[in-house]
Amino acid sequence: MVNSTTKHIATDTINALRLLANQMISQAGSGHPGITLGAAPILYELYANQLNLDPTKPDAINRDRFVLSAGHGSALLYATLHAAGFAVSAQDLSEFRQLHSNTPGHPEVGITPGVEATTGPLGQGLGMAVGMAMTEAKLHAQFPTVINHYTYALVGDGDLMEGVTHEVAALAGQQALNKLIVLYDDNDVSLDGDRKRSDTTDNVARFVSYGFDVQHVADGDDLNALHNAIEVAKQTDQPSLIAVKTVIGAFGPFAGTNKAHGTPLDAAQIATLANALQVEVNDFELAPELLADLRQRIQQRWQAQVQPTPSELAAYNKFTQVETVKLPELTAAIKQQAGRKISQHVIQEFAQQLPQLWGGAADLVASTNAVINDSPLYNAADRQGRNIAFGVREFGMGTVLNGIALHGGTKVFGATFLAFSDYMRAAIRLSAMQHAPVIYVFTHDSITVGEDGPTHQAVEQIMSLRLIPGVDVLRPGTPDEVAVAWQQALTATNRPMVLILSRGKLGDQGNPTQAQSALQNGATQIQTKPDAKVNLIATGSEVQIAMAVSEQLTVTTNVISMPDLQKFLTQSSAQRAAILPTDALNVVIEAGTSLGWQAITGLDGLIIGIDEFGLSAPPAIVQAEFGLTTEVITEKIMRRLAEK
Fold this sequence. Notes:
Structural class: alpha/beta
Shape: elongated
Strand content: 5-15%
Distance between the termini: 84 Å
Helix content: 40-55%
Number of helices: 28
Strand order of the largest sheet: 9-8-10-11-13-12
């Protein structure tokens, strides 16, 4: 409750934040004034009266999380973080949107202290908040004195138009995430005009249907109503949506119109705004009494928290720590299985070593085999369950996985068919930007999906995933490589890992030593011949085809498994030559697009790939139709050798 003594300071602080954010935008010459003017009371209430955090320790494990899903409001967030006492200086604010500044155009985790997630692509921030709330609930169930906090998100009309918010809100309701509080900046305006020109959805009714507790705040400037709504939200056993009616661009020259969204104010308009708000902000610095009041509030709340005992904290740290992960042994019987089945076996072995490992699939556990066998589902009745039923929500799953990884304390995987990775590509891209160690498991990796036809048969996906900076794409070609790929993924700390696994058998070629070399260097020789005339390079289940081709060729041949093309290309020329002797013909075999493999084959090499969509037929027939048979490949190689 805001009393008369504090109301004046609160109003002055809110208006100062409004002016400061717009000064930043005007100096940069670009940005989004509308949300900074309309939503400033929401951010003030959160930081002044709600969030439990320590600005001097922005990574404190039990801090409340706040995700600005409407990332175009970054100027307001940065101004608030500065006012709250985070390491965001007035100089940083003056450099908004400038090269290498700590205040980029949209929030980026790891760049600005206090920013919990990289947002801007609308809708994804809500998904990451859901992932954070899921992780809090899981860890709280086991370590209640160590982890006990709320997750807040601010969303706008644009966020809620994005389909991914349907996916993640439905999941949040299903999971009864009662410590998730979503504040909806409900201003009925989108970038192009009145929201109703493109969207007449009743968002409140929509969230009620998901299982959210929903409240209304009729006036976004009513701090008492806003405060009380959040306090009520903290008491519910459901996730909460608080629809706050605001005016986009309030107090500015374009208030209530779409022009307020992205039109920076000029110097005269800034002066008029300052007069309307009755505040002054000089040199991007708020008045000392406003800073002192806000920072004291934050400090008092943080110091009032009950702290865990040393033994409780030690138990949590032991649980979350990933030490050396021992490789499981693969029996001959296991090596005869499909790549996805070998992966299932490996998951069980690693799950015993890593109690913090959990994950799930987009309603495809039976097909991807991405499951921890001896654990129940994670849900409201069992927060310690290790299997997540994501449902048919690939994009939502990707954003939730990012939130889980960003929260910290666990290791997580999510699985679907490789062809459907396209649904979640935007989330994978944000995984890379945020250095989030998410493990993506993609099975059914080529035309050998067979009868399901071209819609389910991945062709361009493998190479397109390799094109995303900062993502390790691993396509193991031997059973032992599957195990080592999982080991590498589980020990990664600052980048996402993509494991691409076959529907069918991989073959029993290779050994553990070769697998370690393959993942360490990106490639390794699994068959070596002196003075070889041909280097057969393959990935995934095509490695066994390469082995069969080598037996048919009448010339000496090396067979190379290359599970990590990007890593191989980063090796020195000497290291690459040791794996691919330069005096041999390079032949690549991969059941996917040929574009990109020229970096390996050069102009004189040969690429056996697929540059069109697949067909519906049994796997062997589809392979034959596209020339992925021992006989056809052998003939092509011999013909190319004769041409040289």
